[in-house]
């Protein structure tokens, strides 16, 4: 009877070990399959992704060119604004001198009359 118990325990242990090994092997197989599926998905979409990268890179380069051109225009406009401010200041000074001269002449004319 003890031989039957030993055989039963050994059989149960072997069955448990076999089941555990089978589950681990299936788990590893599933992980490998998921990894392969993921790599295939990346591989299948790689041309699209590369095309998108090319498009985005071209758009970035175009925007960089636009920024450069706009920066040049801002510098030109700033120079024009500075020139206009200087001209305006000069005209204001001339106008003030003219008004001062007219006021001085009017005062002198009033004193002389």
Topology at a glance:
Elements: H1 2-112
Biased composition (Basic and acidic residues): 103-113
Region (Disordered): 93-113
Structural class: mainly alpha
- Total DSSP helices: 1
Question: What is the number of beta strands?
Answer: 0
Low-pLDDT runs? none
Order of helices and strands: H
Q: Kindly state the mean pLDDT as a whole number? A: 87
Helical amount: over 70%
Biggest pleated sheet: none
Assess the beta-strand content as a share of residues.
under 5%
Shape: rod-shaped
The CA-CA distance between the termini, in Å, is 153 Å
CA radius of gyration: 46 Å
- Could you state the oligomeric state of the chains shown? single chain
Give a quick set of tags describing it:
113 residues, rod-shaped
């Amino acid at each position: 009877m003890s031989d039957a118990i030993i055989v039963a325990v050994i059989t149960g242990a072997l069955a448990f070990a076999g089941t555990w090994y089978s589950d681990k092997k299936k788990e590893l197989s599933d992980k490998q399959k998921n990894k392969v599926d993921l790599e295939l998905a990346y591989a299948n979409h790689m041309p699209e992704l590369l095309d998108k990268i090319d498009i985005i890179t071209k758009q970035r380069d175009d925007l960089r060119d636009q920024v450069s051109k706009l920066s040049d225009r801002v510098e030109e406009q700033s120079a024009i604004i500075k020139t206009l401010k200087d001209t305006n200041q000069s005209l204001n000074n001339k106008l003030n001198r003219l008004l001062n001269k007219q006021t001085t002449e009017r005062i002198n004319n009033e004193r002389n009359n």
